[in-house]
Amino acid sequence: MTVDGQNYVDGAWVESESGETFAVRDPAAPSEVAGHAQASTAADTEAAVEAAAAAADAWAATPGPERGQYLRDAASRLDARAEEATETLVREEGKTRSEAAGEVGRAVDVLYYYGQKASDVGGVEKSPSGQRTNLYTKQEPIGTAGLITPWNYPVAIPTWKLAPALAAGNTAVLKPASLAPGTARIVVECLDAAGLPDGVANLVTGSGSEVGATVAEHPAVDAVSFTGSTEVGTSVARTAAADLTRVQCEMGGKNPTVVMPSADLDEAVEIVGAGAFGVTGQACTACSRAVVHADVHDAFLDGIVEYAETLSVGPGADDPDVGPQVSREELASTLEYVETGQDEGAVLETGGERLDGDGHFVSPAVFSGVEREMRIAREEIFGPVLSVIEVGSFDEAMSAANDSDYGLSASVVTQDLTEANQFVDRIESGVAKVNEKTTGLELHVPFGGYKDSSTNTYREQGDAALDFFTTTKTVYENY
Prior knowledge:
The protein has about 475 residues and is α/β, with parallel strands linked by helices. The protein folds into 2 domains: about 270 residues, Aldehyde Dehydrogenase, Chain A, domain 1; about 180 residues, Aldehyde Dehydrogenase, Chain A, domain 2. The chain contains 15 helices and 21 strands. The strands form 6 sheets. It has a 7-stranded mixed β-sheet, sandwiched between helices. A 5-stranded parallel β-sheet has the order 9-8-7-10-11, sandwiched between helices.
């Protein structure tokens, strides 16, 4: 049974002034409606921003430990609703049940983490040049934050933006992705149930052109944090910059894993396969390119093809290895890239076929014979498609890995300590991993990309998130 999801504005659950809702459909069974959300207008968004701005001073004056208690309370409530949130995520986004449960667990951990970190927001004391002087900094909230989040991690990413914003003393307006808004609403419901003051957190659903654009350009929004495509993120950054609004955009990726001759090939296949095909390849950090040394290329290719062919594909509720793509459009884009790769001369070793059934299912695809100038080697493919690129040396591998407009996450599989350290030094990527898959992030360290993967301003997660959501005041006190 579906329930029309409402917006949350100034402490109240309300309907859009448009009087309209839109259906959220199950990617595994698109004929089934998983829920509804408000088709909000610019006026709805403006009301949310105004409510957040009106609540900003009182929330900023609330002691950090008290702010943190709201987050910890919300974390325990989300944990109690974990099964419900997992089911919602599976039905709206299509993740497998195991992947969805893991993501919900991450959101709980993020709320607990920033619930504790709220007590650490403060400043530092420095030694002054003169006597009878105090010299110190104060870390203060920036004001009202606009948060625009994607569909592929529909509970983790909203939470890792919302939690540090609130912990630092900011109010917020959250615009979740229209394809999967339900889990973000559950997080806000938990904050509401925890007694969060009116106007501190607001949720508005709707299109990017109506809601997202209004958030980005509203003069009362002091900071904008966006995760999504490079094209949209660039537009958001430009819009925000017109008012000198602080902006943080994390965007696309074309992430490589380098496989060297010293690697344990079974481990290399597992690392690349999990990074490429986990979460149906629908991650900005997914491994899209395997850059493999010629000495182990053929053996690795045999292994990764076998790996892909053994993966089960099906509805997330059945907990297969690979779930559906989130929408008809995403599936069509993946299938188009599979066709493009073949037209360009790459060899489709396996997969890339739309599978029978009503859902948006595609078999995991592996290409060999991929050249660096091919589109499938350069453009982000948000689906389970892996390009294998053969190289003759470590230097050539590094050149190929860095030959991209993106620089989000990268990894190397090697048992050579020199290669491992040179990789870390030379890779043009915000995340560098050794003998690990490109996906998967710790919540207490910075996350962000280089080049077109990021606005290269502020990082997310850990203390870096608190840096984005605060500004520094330097105090000179003579006595």
